[in-house]
Amino acid sequence: MSNTWVNWGRNQKCIPSKYATPTKTDEVAKLVCLGVAERQKVRAVGASHSFSRLCASEGIMIDLSNFNSIIGIDQEHMQVTVGAGIRLFDLNRELESHGLALPNLGDIDRQSLAGAISTGTHGTGINYHSISQAVIGLKIVTGDGGILECSPTENQNIFEAARVSLGALGVIIEVTLQCVPAFRLRAIEQTTSINNVLELFEDAIGTADHTEFFWFPHTEIGTLKINSKTNDSPSYRSPYKAFLSDEVIANGGFELINRYAKFFPQRAQKILENQISTERRISYVASSHKVFCSARRVRFIEMEYAVPLECLFEAFQKVREATNQLDHPITFPIEVRVLGADEIPLSPAYGRKSGYIAVHVYRGSPTEPYFQIVENIMRTYDGRPHWGKVHTRTSQELSDLYPEWNKFQLVLEELDPDGHFSTPYLDRVLRN
Question: What's the pLDDT tens digit per position in 270-298?
Fold first, then answer.
């Protein structure tokens, strides 16, 4: 049987020397020690949802899928300790069953928790932050096989760096999260002209809890999403309508559109315009994680950059103009979100309120020149790339974008001076 590892987007693969699925901490420690002794790189993986070559390694690959349970719950302080390999969709359900929730989530819940925090995975909301901000404690297997615990009061410098650390500091095996009481959101989704969407989005940034928008390339159509906290009772859509909208149309139908456009690109724009309903508005109330997260079964490749919030609209318009000028049509919408500033050294939102612009292509479709054009635009706005998504930046460039870069480097030198946990990607973005 082949040990070939392939990521979710099917754009990255490798053949590790050993692929292990440990169930206990001491097994992880032994694997780390084995890698060090044999001078093999050691790489932890979760759901493999990153589009960058973050996890690709020819050394020992440690799959943390078995580290997926709830370890402890402090109900009074709303703090939960879990195995680092737990998938977000399982975590969300477990938290809800205990009357708890994470304050903010991205729009996909297939990732592992460790992978999500290690890459700075985020949702939207100018008064909110990435999932990493909810982390208040970590347990890490280090290069000598030892167990290091860190928190705001224990090994603080390591803790601050480890909340977004790309897996470069060791193997995270446990995560403690500061949760909030479970809450409901009222979701409003409005499809209208992109110019109208832009006006509404600008107003919603400061007034709504969570807002984002999508623009459908080569059209004048956009969709605005606003999610606001509410005490209203859930108003679920009927199972039939939900299945028709979320699975048949949003996933099955969209898959067919992308396959068709791949072979008949000249017809892509007309197909998209015919399929997207204009002046459509839906509203419903549900548990927070059911509103934040949606099924994404159509596989794609993604690039995402964070720019200073004040540059967001100008940067988006540049991307919009460039996208419309491409010879090859883009069938995936461009997603725009916002996030509050944080103090995590390698967080793309470090020290500044940020706007995020994400571009996608259908799996198997060429990313160039599209991604290169978008990345060049992002450079002009001091854009910081999402660590788990496609980009070409190097440590020389990135060090100028992160004020606390050297602070992270000191922790990296302390915990992994010889690069036992490194990969070619990490060498490029952190070491060379």
Answer: 666 666 666 688 999 999 999 999 888 78
Count the Cβ atoms, other than its own, within 10 Å of residue 241.
Answer: 11
- pLDDT recorded at residue 280: 83
Looking at the whole model, is its pTM more than 0.85? yes
Q: Please list the ranges in the chain whose pLDDT falls under 70.
A: 1-2, 236-279
Task: Look at the alpha carbons of 207, 208, 210, 211 in this order and tell me if their dihedral is positive or negative.
Answer: negative
Structural fold of domain 70-181: 3.30.465
Going from N- to C-terminal start, the domains of the chain cover: 70-181, 184-385
* pLDDT at residue 248 in the model: 36
Q: 184-385 in CATH: which number? A: 3.40.462.10
The pLDDT value recorded for residue 295 is: 82
